[in-house]
């Protein structure tokens, strides 16, 4: 064999060995300034994965903006954002690839600051293993516990606890053993199957690539050898087939396929599959990719599947193995990590996105919060930024899911604010609530059409919103009297009256205000179903909750009436003396004073009480109802 042929053969063998290496995805996490970025930089440096020009730039950057004086600041290899370099902290999740002779790695350096916990959760969601750093000088801190809990909740079962900066405590064995004992005691309540605690100095390189002479008392593995050999394999191919439909591929009349990325399992032509949540079944006809048709496809592959039968499938549906379907529910329990400055409030409506499906969702109950220090459950009405809680969720439509512990791909979701479209929370499904199967709609012989027809009117919910003292109750009372004289069937739901009975258990903090409106919205919906003209007089300060009630009602039946009165006029009227008490500090959370009012952006009826008399404003509302035929019998 010629030297050139031998060279080609050796090169091919090398490339094949590289391609067949296993891949470990891990995160580094822990409290701020524990040395996460330095650890990764040291791994990259010692693995000889830095080019000469990168090394020169690193040396220059270390002198200019590093934290180690004349020495190399390894953290700068990872902290890419200017703000991070200036502050010496990690803000975003930084992903780095490196390889050794034994394994390939993708490492996510996650931020330690509490306000960036959501970024850490993002990194944990895709990792196989976590390296949790603890500063030997500080011991376990709140973020150590929080990140450990999130790591466990996101299904990571193997962790390395790197007790860093051992050089700063004189490589003291007792310090290490104390921290190890504290962590193992805390982690007993978590779902880790393997905890490897390693004393290291990321800056000095102790116990990173090989055992350190400075800690001869430690007889365990160094960090990199452990990462090269730890088994984190997960046989996703052995799981039942699941693929969320991302889009329906219809380039011409002769082709109709369903495109998506396979979450788990293997699919082949001829397999029986089911579309969920509809439950309709068919047979896989072909598996199509850009490069041609496949005989089989597995986890992570993006494919287009064609079926033998024409069944109705849309974006958000899930194709599953017919004999092993996923679960379907609209009532679930979940763990939620809240990631927004504005609290999670039960009763408020959010959008829930799971896979390719997005549906409106209400947190019906916050069962408890979880104290990340003790892992004890605590009562609470809201979740604040970075808090974790167990919630019951009610969705407007059924989704396809599986408990996160059984299937990560099918068991996670995010919560989205309906006004700003911001991601405000991340969650993990626990199980479907029994009520989802036990509670069904009962068909009734007399429906809303017949109830309305006998009253010679179309039902609606006239939702009057405005500040206290704006004139809502006065106009609502006068409007009902006018409609009564016209022989219409009405009912007024007044804020004060409802709080004497149905909502007497609610206060005036934001969570109670939201629940107040949720209950009244459900009652309004039932009254509209009874065929009534329902007049609702509530401050209802939040746009989100008014939109929630609109969504509860039939299309066109929710009429938002903005009783627009300036705050200074309301204070002058002050019929109940509430503004004075609020100004004097005797009343807390009073709308317009120390609690916000969000006026409607485009109300159906805009009533300006400083321009027209109450009688004239009632005339305006009556005209609206007549023009839209609410005062006539409905027709099919």
Global shape: flat
Low-pLDDT runs? 79-91
Estimate percent helicity.
Answer: 25-40%
Overall number of structural domains: 4
Structural class: alpha/beta
Task: Please give a handful of descriptors for the protein shown.
single chain; Rossmann fold; Elongation Factor Tu (Ef-tu), domain 3; 28% strand
Helices and strands, with pairings:
Blueprint (H helix, E strand, L loop, with lengths): L2 H17 L2 E9 L5 H11 L5 H14 L16 H6 L6 E6 L3 E7 L7 H8 L4 E7 L6 H12 L4 E7 L8 H15 L6 E6 L23 H7 L12 E3 L2 E6 L2 E10 L7 E5 L3 E10 L2 E2 L8 E6 L10 E4 L5 E12 L10 E6 L2 E14 L6 E2 L9 E14 L6 H4 E5 L6 E10 L2 H4 L9 H8 L4 E6 L6 H14 L4 E5 H5 L10 H20 L3 E5 L5 H10 L5 E7 L2 H7 L4 H6 L21 E4 L5 H14 L9
Parallel strand pairs: 1-3, 1-4, 4-5, 5-6, 22-24, 22-25, 23-24, 25-26
Antiparallel strand pairs: 2-3, 7-9, 7-14, 8-9, 9-13, 10-11, 10-14, 11-12, 11-13, 15-19, 15-21, 16-17, 16-20, 17-18, 17-19, 20-21
């Amino acid at each position: 064999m010629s030297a050139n042929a031998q060279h080609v053969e050796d090169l091919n063998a090398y490339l094949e060995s590289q391609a067949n290496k296993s891949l470990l995805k891990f995160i580094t996490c822990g409290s701020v300034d524990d040395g996460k970025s330095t650890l990764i930089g040291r791994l990259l440096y010692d693995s000889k994965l830095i080019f000469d020009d990168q090394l020169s730039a690193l040396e220059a950057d270390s002198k200019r903006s590093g934290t180690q004086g004349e020495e190399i600041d390894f953290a700068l290899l990872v902290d890419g954002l200017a703000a991070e370099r200036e502050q010496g902290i990690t803000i975003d999740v930084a992903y780095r690839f490196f390889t050794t002779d034994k394994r390939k790695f993708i490492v996510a350096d996650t931020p330690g600051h509490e306000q960036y916990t959501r970024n850490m959760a993002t990194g944990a969601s895709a990792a196989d293993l976590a390296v949790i750093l603890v500063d030997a000088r500080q011991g376990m801190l709140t973020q150590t516990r929080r990140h450990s809990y999130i790591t466990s909740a996101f299904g990571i079962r193997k962790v390395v606890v790197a007790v860093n900066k051992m050089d700063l405590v004189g490589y003291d064995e007792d310090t290490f053993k104390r921290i190890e004992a504290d962590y193992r005691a805390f982690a007993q309540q978590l779902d880790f199957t393997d905890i490897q605690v390693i004393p290291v100095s990321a800056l000095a390189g102790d116990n990173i690539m090989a055992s350190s002479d400075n800690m001869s008392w430690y007889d365990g593995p160094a960090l990199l050898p452990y990462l090269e050999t730890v088994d984190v394999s997960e046989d996703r191919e052995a799981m039942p087939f699941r693929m969320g439909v991302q889009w329906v591929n219809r380039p011409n009349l002769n082709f109709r396929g369903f495109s998506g990325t396979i979450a788990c399992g293997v699919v082949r032509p001829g397999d029986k599959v089911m579309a969920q949540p509809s439950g309709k079944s068919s047979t896989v006809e072909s598996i199509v990719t850009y490069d041609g048709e496949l005989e089989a496809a597995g986890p992570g592959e993006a494919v287009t599947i064609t079926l033998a039968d024409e069944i109705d499938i849309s974006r958000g549906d899930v194709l599953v193995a017919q004999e092993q379907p996923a679960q379907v529910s609209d009532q679930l329990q979940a763990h939620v990590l809240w990631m927004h400055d504005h609290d999670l409030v039960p009763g408020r409506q959010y959008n829930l996105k799971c896979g390719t499906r997005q549906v409106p969702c209400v947190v019906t109950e916050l069962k408890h919060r979880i104290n990340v220090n003790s892992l004890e459950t605590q009562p609470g009405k809201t979740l604040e930024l970075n808090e974790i809680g167990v919630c019951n969720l009610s969705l407007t439509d059924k989704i396809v899911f599986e408990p996160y512990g059984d299937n990560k791909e099918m068991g996670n979701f995010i919560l989205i604010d309906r006004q700003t479209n911001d991601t405000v929370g991340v969650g993990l499904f626990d199980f479907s609530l029994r009520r989802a199967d036990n509670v069904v709609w009962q068909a009734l012989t007399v429906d809303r059409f017949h109830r309305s027809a006998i009253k010679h009117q179309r039902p609606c919910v006239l939702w009057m919103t405005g500040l206290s003292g704006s004139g809502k109750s006065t106009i609502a009372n006068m409007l009902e009297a006018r409609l009564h004289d016209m022989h219409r069937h009405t009912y007024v739901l007044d804020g004060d009256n409802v709080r004497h009975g149905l909502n007497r258990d609610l206060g005036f903090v934001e969570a109670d205000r939201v629940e107040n409106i949720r209950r009244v919205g459900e009652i309004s919906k039932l009254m509209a179903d009874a065929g009534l003209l329902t007049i609702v007089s509530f401050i209802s300060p939040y746009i989100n909750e008014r939109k929630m009630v609109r969504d509860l009602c039939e299309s066109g039946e929710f009429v938002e009436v903005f009783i627009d009165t300036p705050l200074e006029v309301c204070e002058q009227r002050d019929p109940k003396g509430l503004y004075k008490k609020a100004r004097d500090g005797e009343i807390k959370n009073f709308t317009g004073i120390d609690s916000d009012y969000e006026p409607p952006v485009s109300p159906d009826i805009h009533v300006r009480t400083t321009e027209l008399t109450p009688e004239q404003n009632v005339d305006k509302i009556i005209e609206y109802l007549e023009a839209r035929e609410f005062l006539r019998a409905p027709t099919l």
